[in-house]
Each structure stands twice: as structure tokens, then as C-alpha cells.
Amino acid sequence: MLNLTRILALALAVGCVPSLQAEEAATGSPAAGHPPSGVPQLPNFSLLVKRQGATVVNVRVFKSEQAQAPEANTPPSSKPLRPPVESGMGSGFIVTSSGLILTNRHVVADAERVRVRFADKSELPARIIGVDPLTDVAVLKVEAQNLPVAVPGDSSQLEVGQWVLAIGAPMGLERTATQGIIGALGRTLPDDSYVPFIQTDVPINPGNSGGPLFDLEGRVIGINSQILSNSGGYMGLSFAIPINIAMTVAKQIVERGHASHGWLGISTQELTLELAQAYGLTAPRGALVSEIRPAGPAYKAGLQLGDVIIAIGDVGIADSADLPPIIGASQPGSENELVVLRDGQVIRVKIKVGELGQESATARRKQTLTRIDRLGLKVADLDRTTKEVFALSNGVRVESAEDGPAAIAGVQQGDILLKLGRHSLESAAQLQQLATKLPTGIPLPLLVKRQENATFVTITIPGNK
To answer: pTM to 2 decimals?
Structure first.
């Protein structure tokens, strides 16, 4: 009789080991010492790990130790920055032989220096080519040639129940392999509405973030990104960014320095059973339009408050969480047809997808800039979209940095100024008022956010000659 362990193994199995299949095909008979090919076997991942392990890297992040900003009237020299120390780590994988590496944005957030350790334990410095906050994808570059490359698969062809393998550095333990199955597809998390995550039961822990998720053929089908946990450790639910989305974002970052995402200019909410009945639906399905941005794509297309979006083209919308990933993945400028329930009637609305952030750029062009001669800056208030994308509650955007104290301190166009001395910066007008009162000849700390990094610099107003 088969023992209990063997019975469970057979019950969980989903496919034959490829090497056994190859042997049977060559000989015409079952492989020696193994059951006939009709009996399913658990997969053996050892060959996959040997072939793909060298494409996985450990990403080490460094930043300077500085618990707080210096006091407003204290020269920075009395509180020097220490050399950068290792502040975190994650994983990544090589996508070009010339040194492009994919990882998570949150792995390299606030990094002042990044180093990449390879499977042979050699290390190279890496620079951040760009990041995308909405999808949590980051692209790194090391100066190297002839590196082993991970081959991307097709995440649109995945199925619930198929075997997957992760390789990474959980808890700093490099080149660790963990396996599981896909538990769900298109999963939307509360803080990541633009990514339809691959949900797995692969053990993922801190340090795995940014590493590859492989299928049985050794192709990367996702980037391990998040876990749901009360303790900070693995509790059975892991989430990966589909590789199709990650590669599209990475290509845009490399070519343009940033990624573009579709945008309709609406907010939607879930339909409760009571709301569904009020709108004439037999079940709570669809996305209820609760806000329409003026002059946005939805406004121009004639969408109305109270409309229930039940499909985009031929793709049904089960709930409001289904909408953002589909629109976010749409090419800005493309035309879609929304199937909408309005006043008990099903209508079709053609809508041209806008670009997330383009509204902000247009608004900035129309915005009156505040000139601050004493700092050599032109600045503007932050718009709502910028605050949402970068998770900011305050700040002032630099529209130009001319010759002056700010430029000397390293401030550039596009930077966001967060704090000057003890003062959090809430508006351009406030910064203008503060600038008139700044003492001369005394270095002051200025907190500057550039892409994902926030760094203190010192700015000094020169004295009168």
C-alpha cells in the first residue's frame, strides 16, 4: 500500500517532470525506477535553479545615517553626515546582457547608493535608471557585458493552480529557492489599484522583493513584490507583478525616463447589494462612478455621476477594483468603449484614454509661477495628482533653478522642496515669505525630493558685499 505521504504527493501533483517525459519519449517506455508516465509526479526544480540562478542578483541599498535635520541655526559642519551604511536589501534579475536589472521601486526607495551582488559573489555599483511608483517597478544599470539573462514569459497565459518558483534573498539568505502554486490572478490590493497581481502561496519574506517568479519552463512570469502579513513574515499569501506589465513599464523607463499610464479622470466605488437594487441590477456587479474630474477624458466623453460601468469592450467589470488595472495598462490616446448602465438602460460610451499626470503637466503650464529671486527659483504649488502619485501631503515644485543659492546647493528643475529649516513647505507663497526672512551667511538645511529619493542639502544666502 502507498503510505500517506505518497498519497498526498500524488493528490497535489499537477504535471510530470520534464526530464522524465524526455526519457520516455526517447525510449518509448517509462523511465527506470519511476512509475508509468500516466501517474503524475511533483516537479523537480533543481535543474531550473541551476540554469536560472545566475540571472538573479542581490540588491543592496545604502544611505547616509542622519536621524534628523540639523537645527535651523546650527552649521551642518557641527553635525557631519556619516558615510553611507547598508539600510536594506532585496532581489532583482538581469534582463539584458549589458547590465539592465529589474527590481521593485520600494527596494531602492531613498537609496543614495546601490550595489548589486551576483551569484558568483562579485559586486558592482548600480545606478537607478528610473522608477514607477504606480507599479512598483525599478530599472537599475550596472556596467558589465555578457551577463546571463532571465527570459521573460507571458503572464497573460497563466492559470490558477500551476507551479511557480521564486529565487531571491529572504532575510538576507541569498540564492534561496521557494516553490508554490498560483492561487489567483488579477488580484487587486487596496494600495496598488494599478496592478492586477499574481497571487501565490510561494513563501516570500523581506529580501525576496524584486526577485523573479519563474514558471516550470524557467521563464520569468512575475516580480515578487508584496506579502499580506500581520507579523512581517510569510503567512501564505504572496503577490507578484505580472511580467508583461513590468517589461512594458521598464521599456518606457529606459526609452523616456518614465512610464505612462492610462487615465479616465473618474473615481468609482463598490456597489453594495442595496445600491445595486437601487440602480436596477440583480447583483452588485460593476463600478459606480462617484466623481468626474472637470475637463478629463470621462467628462469629455459624457460620462455622468451615477453611471455604472459594467464592461470595457468585451471585458466585464465585476467590481470597481477591476477598472484601474485595465485603464492603467491602456495606451494613452487609445479609444475604448465603455458599456454603462444609466437610468436602467444599457448604453455604450466611446472614450479616449488620457495620460495620468498629463493633467498635472497641463495645469502647471497654465499655473502662475512664483519667482523667488533671493533663492534663484521659480516654484509652483503641488497639484493633487502629483501628491497622490508620490504619496505627499505637502511640498513645492521647482519649475526652474537659475543661478543662485538653490542651484549652488544642487536644486534642479522638477525637484520637490519639502522642508526649509524647521518649516514644512506647504505652498509657493509660504516659501516666498520664508525666503525674505532667511539670515545671510548661515547654512540652512533644505529637504529635497528627487524621484524616489529625499535628501537634505544646505543652502546659504550670501551676505551683502
So the answer is: 0.65
